[in-house]
Design brief:
Blueprint lengths: L10 H25 L4 H73 L1
Length: 113
């Protein structure tokens, strides 16, 4: 049975969708401009403005993706540090218990002798 994927549950799926949407909007705007009845200078100015808007949108999308990924990486690093700290604390607790048990056993043996 095929597994269904939900848009937005995987980083690459939502990023591809946004990139595709931006590219489609840019191509649509360019075709619309080329088919519009305008003079050459008006058309060039409008194309320049459109590409500027597209560039800003792409830059904003990239910055948002970087922020998202950076936040996720920082979260994983923080969770890893906490897990390492818990592991160290558990190790120290077990080690102390083993030392205490060894000392108690040694004391009991010495008392019997």
């Amino acid at each position: 049975m095929r597994e269904m994927k939900t848009v937005g549950t995987e980083g690459s799926g939502s990023g591809s969708f946004v990139l595709g949407m931006l590219c489609g909007a840019a191509v649509g705007a360019a075709v619309g401009l080329l088919l519009a009845p305008k003079s050459g200078s008006e058309l060039r100015e409008q194309i320049c403005e459109s590409t500027g808007r597209f560039r800003r949108s792409a830059t904003d999308g990239y910055a948002a993706a970087v922020d998202t990924v950076s936040g996720a990486v920082e979260n994983v690093i923080e969770r890893g540090k906490k897990a390492a700290q818990r592991g160290q604390e558990t190790y120290e607790t077990v080690r102390k218990s083993a030392v205490d048990a060894t000392s108690a056993a040694s004391k009991a043996v010495n008392e019997r002798l």
